[in-house]
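Sequence in, structure out.
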Amino acid sequence: MEIRLPNTVNPARPQKVPYRRIATEEAWAPQEMLDIYNKILGHADADAGFRGLMGFYMSSPSERARHIMRCLTDLDQLRLQHMDEAGIDQAVVAITSPGTQVMDKATAVSFARSANDELADAVRRHPTRLAGMIAIAPQDPAAAAQEIERGVTKLGMHSVIINSHTQGEYLSDPKFWDIFAAAEAHDAAIYLHPNALPPSMLHPFQQCGLDGAIYGFGVETGLHALRIITAGVFDRFPKLRMVLGHMGEALPYWAYRLDYMHQATVKSQRYASVQPIQRRPSEYLRQNFWITNSGVAWEHAIKFAQGFLGEDRVMYAMDYPYQYAPDEVNLLDGMDMAPEVKKKFFQTNAEAVFKLR
């Protein structure tokens, strides 16, 4: 089974196609957030995962790091130029990981509001090119719920970005469930995006360079999604919608074993934390989740996910600027796929999930 890689030397500009290409996991870093990060990194006890991720990109002289930081901070000319060069018609933008989630509670709540206002201003400047996800501070679930309401009703954004764990804590803990209640009430999909690994997981990944997007991100974010499923979140909030990137952090490919071993673990009564839920894990994946292919321009994986979840639940994403390879668009335009399915993948699924006009 061949894995075709994009031509990064002389990539061809994507051609005009009979659908809009909407990229659904595109990152942004407001300068205010970077200033807060610099203050956090100035403390000797700053989280090691955070220091190794954003601390690296903010300080490294490498060409890749400089490119990423230059692109992250722009919501106007440079971003639109790169979108044009890649054939991207619209980008759904969210603050980059870890967003608010490495901050203290008061700072996080205040910053989330200002970040959402800034992003909403950019969307108003470029209404056909940009859309936004609502930033929240999970550290204060009640305030996060209020910000979801404000983001939907006042700012016109219809999805929420949560960068996986919040200082080692997971949304499977009922203390966070006000967030789920607000997202369900306002029909705002939650995009569960990777974060740097928490201290309890970091060392064995970081010591061999596997802590980031190459592997660690998917492991940790997939874990988070499974914690949410097995905690019974979707039994309590059956209309809650969630989005996972990077081909669902590989969970669709684990589905058979997840179903079998979850049932076996419940029957064994091995863990008090593993109790019966109303459906199999794979059923929640099919009914409550959508996935994007962010960072995975691979036809075989996309088609498997469409077969498992349904062609209405798999969407395109580029993962800009961490993965900016315009020729990947050519690879995906060329997929052997019915035109109506390809349009769903690139356009109409995103319009439905993120309520794009």
